[in-house]
Write a structure and sequence with these properties.
Layout: H1 3-9, H2 11-17, H3 22-34, H4 42-70, H5 80-87, H6 91-94, H7 107-113, H8 121-135, H9 154-164, H10 177-196, H11 207-217, E1 222-226, H12 233-246, E2 254-258, H13 263-275, E3 301-306, H14 335-344, E4 346-357, H15 368-377, E5 381-386, E6 399-405, E7 422-427, E8 433-434, E9 440-441, H16 444-458, H17 461-466, E10 477-481, H18 482-487, H19 495-498, H20 512-545
Parallel strand pairs: 1-2, 1-3, 3-4, 5-7
Antiparallel strand pairs: 4-6, 5-6, 7-10, 8-9
Helix pairs in contact: 4-10, 4-13, 11-12, 11-16
Protein name: site-specific DNA-methyltransferase (adenine-specific)
Domain DNA methylase adenine-specific: 178-505
Pfam family, one: N6_Mtase
């Protein structure tokens, strides 16, 4: 191979030598993976790359557990042949929630044999995926076996395997494989969402929107449910919230339950949960439509978080469905079907955060206004938040957040503010920061301001710990009574309630009366000057004619 071509082939490895940040390394991996796209469709390509990252994760987590076992001083007391057998005891891994990885599916075996494998590295990877699924029932039917197809460039696939084998994609020190490869998995999900645009809506919700829902609801413990779970982002962020606030030892204080209608997206969710140390059984053993085939009919959740498809018209509607307690939703739009399904899943003191289109706050078509009124009168609506534009690359439709709850009272020892018969309205349309020409994100400061406002209104422990107290802020937030909402015909658009922001008066500003007199005088002077110039121009034009 000529030197220039040889250098180009090794470009990815060379780039890795000169960078150190996780983000830079992930960018290089993305570029290398992108070369493999070829004739694959977007959905297949997504499975292809994320499947590789997942296989690396289960192998690294297995190796970490194996090294932990090997370091046990007691192991040194037994004969070497028994020691080797002990390290291959499957129960020693599964009892610690580590997937069992058969020898030929381990990453070091794949990496060492990628160049010489009979049938190519693709065949090696397909076999590894198959072995991991057979050894772990919760992964049955989840992992992709698409690496040996005709549309996969085996040479570039081998280069990608070499890149993923780099030490910086492996857990080390206080950064276990779960952290390193969990971040990489999330990074790729975001990149795929950016690349696919509108088509990405079924599997990805912008991270700052998910964070906002989680920060408002504060899911420290209990059952967390998502009826349209996509790739599982709500669950992952809930786990991260618990880890940040109470430590990693408490992440299992929440149990996740979800349902996803798209097979490929369901697979992504299973892998996403597993790679973040969460139970993949939570999203069931098969994909299914939430309306047509509710897989969790008896579930009562402490928290529900969802970003269902906006304004969906093609859905399985049954007019006699027991979930429609507040009115039968129209076939033309499933927004109020989602809301009522979510209410049906709430426990006695359960709360929910739901992303919907802005139209859901004011629509009166096909009985939606009556359903909304019934839900308000049932005191289910806790808070409405109008979101800024450009948060979603997947849709241009403006969005809002609905927060629902079964109990707005003090809730005993929680000593919350009694907010029965009241709804908090927050107008966050002016918030957020543009990260490029088309996309906006909510910053840490935005997330804190909005969640603090809700917690202060509700009187939560986190608000008390911060010394927060609630007050209405014109143009931003307002606590409305049900009587006020009734006067607005049950329209829940925050702008109707928060009013206009107060403009601070400048003490040095010119008094209004004097300013009007001055501007009037200036206007008349300019009109007089305009008339004078008009006369001059006419005279000059007349001379030209002479």
């Amino acid at each position: 191979m000529p030197p220039r071509k040889r250098a180009a082939a090794a470009a990815g490895q060379g780039e890795l030598l000169s960078v150190s940040s996780t983000k830079e390394i992930q960018d290089i991996l993305w570029k290398a993976a992108d070369k493999l796209r070829g004739s694959m469709d977007a959905a297949q390509y997504k499975e292809f790359v994320l499947g590789l990252v997942f296989l690396k994760y289960v192998s690294d987590a297995f190796t970490e557990r194996r090294e932990e076992l090997a370091a046990d001083p007691e192991l040194a007391q037994i004969p070497e042949h028994r020691r080797a057998a002990f390290l291959e005891e499957k129960d020693e891994y599964t009892e610690k929630n580590v997937f069992w990885v058969p020898p030929t599916a381990r990453w070091d075996h794949i990496s060492e044999n990628a160049a010489s494998a009979e049938g190519g590295v693709g065949k090696l990877l397909d076999a590894a995926m198959d072995e991991v699924m057979k050894a772990n029932k919760t992964l049955t039917g989840v992992l992709p076996k698409i690496f040996n197809r005709d549309n996969v460039d085996q040479k570039r696939l081998k280069e990608l395997v070499d890149l993923i084998s780099d030490a910086r994609f492996t857990g080390h020190g206080d950064r276990p494989a779960q952290d390193v490869l969990g971040e990489t998995y999330e990074y790729f999900l975001e990149r795929f969402a950016r690349a696919e645009g509108k088509r990405a809506g079924e599997f990805y919700t912008p991270a700052s929107v998910v964070r906002l829902i989680v920060e408002v609801l504060e899911p420290y413990e209990g059952r967390v449910y998502d009826p349209a779970c996509g790739s599982g982002g709500m669950f992952v962020q809930s786990g991260k919230f618990v880890a940040r606030r109470r430590g990693k030892d408490h992440t299992h204080d929440i149990a996740v339950y979800g349902q996803e209608a798209n097979e490929r997206t369901w697979r992504l969710a299973k892998m996403n949960l597993a790679i973040h140390g969460m139970d993949p059984k939570g999203v069931g053993d098969r994909w299914a439509d939430t309306f047509a085939d509710d897989k969790l009919p008896d579930l009562k959740a402490d928290f529900v978080m969802a970003n269902p498809p906006f304004n969906m018209s093609d859905w399985a509607r049954k007019s006699d469905d027991g979930r429609w307690r507040y009115g039968v939703p129209p076939q033309s739009n499933a927004n109020y079907a989602w809301l009522q399904h979510i209410v049906s899943k709430l426990g006695e003191r359960g709360s929910a955060g739901v992303v919907l289109s802005n139209g859901s706050m004011s629509s009166k078509q096909s009985g939606e206004g009556e359903i909304r009124a019934a839900m308000v009168e049932a005191d289910l609506v806790s808070c409405m938040i109008a979101l800024p534009g450009n948060l979603f690359r997947t849709t241009a439709i403006p969005a809002c957040l609905w927060f629902l709850t079964k109990d707005k009272g003090p809730q005993g020892t929680k000593a919350l503010e009694d907010r029965r018969s009241r709804v908090l309205f927050i107008d966050a349309r002016a918030m957020g920061t543009m990260v490029d020409r088309t996309e906006r994100i909510l910053t840490e400061e935005d997330l804190e301001k909005i969640s603090d406002t809700y917690h202060a209104w509700r009187g939560t422990k986190s608000a008390r710990d911060k010394g927060l107290s609630y007050e209405d802020v014109p143009g931003y937030c307002y606590s409305a009574t049900l009587e006020e909402i009734e006067k607005h015909d049950y329209v829940l658009t925050p702008g109707r309630y928060v009013g206009a922001a107060e403009v601070a008066e400048d003490p040095d500003a010119e008094p209004v009366g004097e300013r009007i007199a001055r501007l009037t005088k200036e206007l008349f002077e300019q009109l007089d000057e305009s008339a004078r110039l008009d006369t001059v121009v006419r005279e000059q034009l007349g001379r030209i004619g002479d």
